[in-house]
């Protein structure tokens, strides 16, 4: 990650990463199928997290309330799972500067959406042609993504977390209220 941070993701080769780690290029590829996987080393966790939130909700808790609770917990603890941790602005800048990473993160977001939609469909016993689970997954994940991007924009602008956090809390409450009550307006 240090190499990527100092020179930019696209300017670092796998051979250079292997040299820095004192391993062979083949060893790197044994653990990481592509260079992007080195950078996105938590992608398996990131892909499965929305399904965990949906399946881990309390009895009677809606999926929207579960995502609200989880996002607000991450906001208060600055947990990495929604990109609210210290350094997420650096991560976001590196992704923005790399076409390969932008493409891979788009794939990651789509995979998360597909997995969450499948879990919601299974839970609801939805038919294959029922769009409701996919719509729910898309709205939930786009909401959390947009909220995270809002926070990162503040970080990139040099704002202190103490300024970002309360503003983000207000935006999160509005966003989840819209999801819970329906957009309607």
UniProtKB/TrEMBL annotation:
InterPro entries: Homeodomain-like_sf, HTH-type_TetR-like_transc_reg, HTH_TetR
Domain annotation HTH tetR-type: ranges: 1-50
Keyword Magnesium: no
Pfam families: TetR_N
Protein name: HTH tetR-type domain-containing protein
Xref: PROSITE patterns: HTH_TETR_2
GO molecular function: DNA-binding transcription factor activity; transcription cis-regulatory region binding
Keyword ATP-binding recorded: no
Keywords: DNA-binding, Transcription, Transcription regulation
């Amino acid at each position: 990650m240090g190499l990527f941070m100092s020179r930019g993701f696209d300017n670092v080769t796998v051979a250079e990463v292997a040299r820095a780690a004192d391993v062979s290029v083949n060893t790197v590829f044994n653990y990481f199928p592509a260079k992007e996987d080195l950078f996105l080393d938590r992608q398996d966790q990131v892909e499965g997290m929305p399904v965990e939130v949906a399946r881990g909700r309390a009895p009677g808790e809606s999926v929207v309330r579960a995502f609200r609770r989880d996002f607000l917990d991450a906001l208060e603890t600055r947990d990495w799972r929604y990109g609210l941790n210290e350094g997420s602005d650096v991560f976001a800048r590196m992704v923005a500067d790399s076409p390969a990473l932008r493409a891979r993160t788009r794939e990651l977001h789509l995979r998360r959406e597909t997995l969450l939609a499948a879990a919601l469909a299974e839970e609801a016993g939805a038919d294959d042609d029922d769009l409701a689970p996919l719509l729910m997954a898309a709205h939930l994940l786009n909401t959390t993504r947009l909220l995270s991007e809002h926070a990162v924009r503040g970080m990139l602008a040099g704002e202190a977390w103490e300024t970002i956090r309360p503003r983000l809390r207000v935006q999160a409450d509005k966003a989840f209220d819209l999801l819970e009550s329906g957009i309607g307006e």
